[in-house]
């Protein structure tokens, strides 16, 4: 029989990723808009790169556990077209997280500054192709996160407890 919840390690990685992504969006937005010379510019870029790398590493680890550890079957009431959407959105969330991380580090690589998060933003080239990919992927990731949250909350409100599968609440 398959387990009724995600393995603890996947629960922890899910919520740590949520926390990091919730910070990455405003930090990314602000760091890209404040002037060079502001005392916040460099620390925000470094924080962003550090959190972005953390998301990248956690996503790779999650995919490793997904294929190594027994996973819960989809929730009982998710069938037919809804099941296809559930699978598609979950797969695309992983792809979206990886693409954001890889395009972010691509900006560093294409700018020739190496991979260290201890970057000097003045040395980055924001005209490289990875930069425009990073800026475009963020909309895709945001849309996927929106669909995911609406799906989870609407299931929780109308069909049954899904949050406990990801470690929230005590479940049945
Ligand atoms: C899932 C992980 C990530 C998310 C969600 C994320 C999100 C964002 C967001 C929202 C922005 C601001 C875009 C705007 O100006 O509107 C941004 C910019 C940026 N991010 Fe990330 N990021 C991630 C990972 C990374 C990584 C790993 C790096 C580098 C190691 C990185 C480097 C950058 C750079 C250099 C910019 C400025 C790009 C520009 O202004 O052209 N990001 N990111
Ligand atoms: C940055 C935002 C988020 C991202 C990137 C994200 C990503 C993911 C991914 C990739 C999965 C699939 C896990 C798998 O099957 O391997 C998942 C599952 C799940 N997420 Fe999120 N999530 C986010 C926010 C949230 C929030 C805010 C909630 C709660 C309202 C939530 C609740 C859940 C639940 C309950 C599951 C398990 C669904 C099931 O039973 O199969 N997530 N999430």
> How much helix, percentage-wise, in residues?
55-70%
pLDDT < 50 runs, ≥5 residues: none
Strand percentage lies at: under 5%
Task: List the helices and strands in order.
Answer: HHHH
Through-space gap between termini: 16 Å
Cofactors and ligands: protoporphyrin IX containing FE
Number of helices: 4
Residue-averaged pLDDT, rounded?
96
Describe the structure.
By secondary structure, this protein is mainly α. The chain has helices at residues 8-33, 41-68, 80-111, 129-158. The chain has one domain (8-166). The protein has 4 helices and no strands. The chain is elongated and about 55 Å long. The structure holds protoporphyrin IX containing FE (2 copies). Residues 14, 17-18, 21, 66, 75, 90, 93-94, 97, 145, 148-149, 152-153, 162-163, 165-166 line the site of one protoporphyrin IX containing FE.
């Amino acid at each position: 029989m398959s387990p009724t919840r995600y393995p603890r390690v996947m629960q922890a990685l899910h919520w740590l990723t949520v926390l990091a992504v919730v910070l990455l969006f405003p930090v990314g937005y602000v760091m890209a808009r404040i002037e060079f010379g502001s005392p916040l510019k460099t620390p925000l870029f470094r924080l962003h790169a550090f959190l972005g790398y953390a998301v990248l590493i956690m996503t790779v680890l999650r995919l490793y556990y997904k294929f190594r550890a027994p996973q819960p079957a989809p929730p009982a009431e998710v069938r037919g077209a809804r099941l296809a959407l559930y699978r598609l959105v979950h797969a695309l969330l992983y792809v979206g997280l990886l693409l954001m991380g890889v395009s972010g580090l691509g900006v560093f690589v294409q700018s020739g500054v190496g991979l260290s998060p201890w970057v000097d933003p003045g040395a980055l080239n924001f005209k490289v192709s990875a930069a425009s990919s990073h800026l475009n992927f963020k909309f895709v990731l945001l849309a996927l996160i929106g669909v995911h949250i609406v799906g989870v909350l609407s299931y929780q409100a109308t069909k049954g407890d899904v949050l406990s599968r990801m470690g929230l609440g005590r479940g049945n």
